[in-house]
Design goal:
single chain, alpha+beta, three-stranded antiparallel sheet, 11 helices, binds nicotinamide-adenine-dinucleotide
Amino acid sequence: MGDLRSRSDGTDGGIVIAAARLERAVAAVFRAAGSEPAEAALVAHHLVGANLSGHDSHGVGLLRGYLAAVDRGDLRLNQRLATVRDSGSLLVLEGRRGAGAAMASAAMARGIERAHREGHALVALRDSYHIGRIGAWAEQCAAAGLVSIHFVNVPAHAAVAPFGGTRARLGTNPFAAGFPRPGAAPVVVDFATSRWAVGKVQVANRRGDRLPPGILLDASGRGTDDPAALYGPPPGALLPFGDHKGFGLALACELLAGAVTGGLTQDGTPSEAITNSMLSIIVLPEALGANGYAAALEGLLAWVTAEGTVRLPGEPEEARRAAQLLGGIAIDPVTWSDMKAAAEGVGIDDLAAAGG
Ligand code: NAD
């Protein structure tokens, strides 16, 4: 595939760039910032993977923020997972605020090995730096033939009001689950427990768009369509999806990923650091006696999608991936300019050229 697909010519200041080239460029930036080549490659692959799957809020636009976190000492490069407990199917791993893509992929690799050996694994990953798009970790398990469930919290980044409240007291605490399908892309359920993810509000704010009702409260606790109200000061609060149901799931994520794993939980201490803890349950379906897992899954999916208008979770991401692998990834002018500034900060003056 040709690399640079079209404009980087200043017509609008953005760029459309081939995924492979973007990945090489982002990896070069991380290497220049001090990451070992393997870590730089993992981080770049994860960020570009988020763009490819249509979740730009968790993609390469995070580059500048990640490098600022490195400078502050919040994101610690070249960390290795520390094993706190390794007993049968249980793994408790400490992420040491290391690069999230490296920490989570290593934790999943350990869990995958264990689930194949024991039939299931319970993996607690404590206090990694931002682990990004959680669906990627479900996809890693699914690629190994394993079903997985992931509960995640975002300590110190309170952005969501509990149902019945008006002040931000929880993170956007994502939930994900993945189900492998022989010969087809897995079913991947992956979402924040807020009505909108913070990144989507950021995009609306950047574009000057108004928000639909039911997304955001301003600092006085009134509903607002102004995305800037999230930031304040004083800051507003996102609402959980599904009223008390989304709040319940967000709280379960906080408890499972934070309190149960021994990781950090929300306590009102503000911090710029975006850490995540994650509790993952990884299951080999055959180990539960489910010899007919694949047939049961396919039968159910055929039943659920019978009307022809229904899309399965994971399908939108798969479609975006296919389209962008062909046509390149479009990066908006503000994000591209941010990324170039981040690259210059570590001595890379031509970011696009760094991708070869
Ligand atoms: P979203 O609202 O876009 O929902 C995505 C999910 O819904 C996917 O499973 C997708 O396949 C499914 N979906 C979308 N349209 C569908 C349709 N028409 N029919 C059936 N299924 C459909 O996701 P979000 O809440 O904006 O979250 C975006 C990303 O942000 C996620 O990848 C999440 O993991 C990530 N996130 C990460 C953190 C963190 O701290 N690391 C925090 C919050 C969110």
